[in-house]
């Protein structure tokens, strides 16, 4: 009965949720050492927003108000529960754009995006959220509300504390408001779907695009023939843009600028030169928004296709560009005919999505994948989580990307800000070390 009263009280607090309400909940939970899990759109891939045992879930979805937009600077202030696609739609009418674009944009929330330092398709143009976020409002474990909701770009007054919470996955505090710099929405967008004979050509094409497309380059994505085959097999209505051949690699290059004639001529000259030099085997430029959408459908539909195919082991890795695809090839050798190994991702910022597809989950297959994939990534000084965080699934694997001294400092910060360890337990940091 007492437990039911506590739950009813928490539910009442959550109605009309805001930072003050979140503060009351955390004060209550902290005083009784009740663990909490902050939750947004729940679209993460590493279990960062799901309870492990009996934690209280604080879902911030009702905190979805847009507070302000400076129409001169493009600085947007909003609550953490705003859905990413809704923010982008709002900005469309105001002449701006969100600096990140994700496949889960219809469900994910900006608070979760910031908490995981999400990357996505526009990273090559606008960089990470560490650069785009100007300020945050965060509720600490003890209920203290930290007002760091600045709306200025330059501030050198002491420690930049907001950076602690970007990518911390709710383990140091719960983000309730966000101030973010949104770039102008430019009028000219072009998208090319290209074929390359090998991964070296993809790398060379990336290098050349950065030099010759420069200021208009907004996305550079790649996928291999296994990824293309998966999409064509399992997604209805998807067609090969470059029939009838199936090529080894495919690249999507997007440009965004303010002068349609200039931008198109620049892209076409680049593609012609790349074709003549042998970097491109074939290619097509989208002629309208529908064709552009069909091209993006291929790249963004890989995850959906994999789910329809059966079981999938997913890895989100950052690696030196010249080494990225070596890992895919090594995994194919290790697994042989037992699995399909797909390589795709954000080549423009050296982010590989290594996906391994099998009819059903198999411990013998997993034993061939892990810890090899983490050891190989670590040996090349890569990151075992490029843009999805560590969550529950990778918390005990942080040492593959961070030194013992770095992890120890992270643990010290965690214990300082959350001494009762109520915030998102079992996530980000190795549980055994945090509890010592």
TrEMBL record:
The keyword Methyltransferase does not apply. It is an enzyme of class 1 (oxidoreductase). Its EC number is 1.1.99.39. Gene3D superfamilies: 3.30.465.10, 3.30.70.2190, 3.30.70.2740, Vanillyl-alcohol Oxidase, Chain A, domain 4. Belongs to the FAD-binding oxidoreductase/transferase type 4 family. Residues 22-185 form the FAD-binding PCMH-type domain. Keywords: FAD, Flavoprotein, Oxidoreductase, Signal. GO terms for molecular function: (R)-2-hydroxyglutarate dehydrogenase activity; FAD binding. One of its GO terms (cellular component) is mitochondrion. This is D-2-hydroxyglutarate dehydrogenase. Residues 1-19 form the signal peptide. The keyword ATP-binding does not apply. It comes from the Eukaryota. Its cofactor is FAD.
């Amino acid at each position: 009965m007492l437990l039911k009263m506590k739950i009813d009280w928490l539910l009442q607090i959550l109605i009309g949720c805001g930072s003050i309400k979140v503060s009351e909940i955390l004060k209550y939970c902290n005083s009784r050492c009740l663990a909490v899990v902050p939750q947004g759109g729940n679209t993460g891939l590493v279990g960062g927003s799901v309870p492990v045992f009996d934690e209280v879930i604080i879902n911030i979805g009702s905190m979805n108000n847009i507070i302000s937009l400076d129409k001169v600077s493009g600085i947007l202030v909003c609550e953490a529960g705003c859905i990413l696609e809704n923010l982008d739609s709002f900005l469309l009418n105001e002449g701006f754009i969100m600096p990140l674009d994700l496949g889960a944009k219809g469900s994910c929330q900006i608070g979760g995006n910031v908490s995981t330092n999400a990357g996505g398709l526009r990273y090559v143009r606008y960089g990470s959220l560490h650069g785009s976020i100007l300020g945050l409002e965060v509720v600490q474990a003890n209920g203290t509300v930290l007002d760091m909701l600045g709306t200025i770009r330059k501030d050198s007054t002491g420690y930049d504390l907001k950076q602690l919470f970007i990518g911390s996955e709710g383990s140091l505090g719960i983000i309730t408001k966000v101030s973010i710099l949104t770039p102008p929405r430019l009028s000219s967008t072009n998208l090319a779907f290209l074929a390359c004979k090998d991964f070296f050509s993809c790398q060379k094409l990336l290098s050349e695009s950065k030099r010759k497309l420069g200021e208009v380059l907004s996305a550079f994505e790649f996928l291999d023939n296994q990824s293309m085959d998966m999409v064509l097999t399992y997604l209805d209505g998807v067609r090969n843009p470059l029939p009838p051949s199936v090529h080894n690699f495919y690249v999507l290059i997007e440009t965004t600028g303010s002068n349609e004639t200039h931008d198109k001529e620049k892209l076409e000259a680049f593609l012609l030169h790349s074709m003549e030099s042998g970097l491109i085997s074939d290619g097509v430029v989208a002629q309208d928004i529908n064709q552009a959408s069909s091209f993006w459908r291929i790249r963004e539909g890989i995850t959906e296709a994999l789910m329809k195919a059966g079981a999938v082991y997913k890895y989100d890795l950052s690696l030196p560009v010249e080494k990225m695809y070596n890992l895919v090839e090594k995994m194919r050798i290790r697994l042989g005919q037992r699995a399909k190994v797909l390589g795709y991702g954000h080549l423009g910022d050296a982010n590989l999505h290594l996906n391994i597809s099998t009819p059903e989950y198999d411990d013998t297959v997993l034993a061939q994948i892990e810890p090899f994939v983490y050891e190989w990534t670590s040996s090349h000084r890569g990151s075992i989580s490029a843009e999805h965080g560590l969550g529950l699934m990778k918390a005990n694997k942080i040492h593959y990307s961070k030194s013992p001294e770095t992890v120890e400092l992270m643990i010290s910060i965690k214990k300082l800000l959350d001494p009762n360890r109520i915030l998102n337990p079992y996530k980000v940091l190795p549980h055994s070390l945090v509890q010592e």
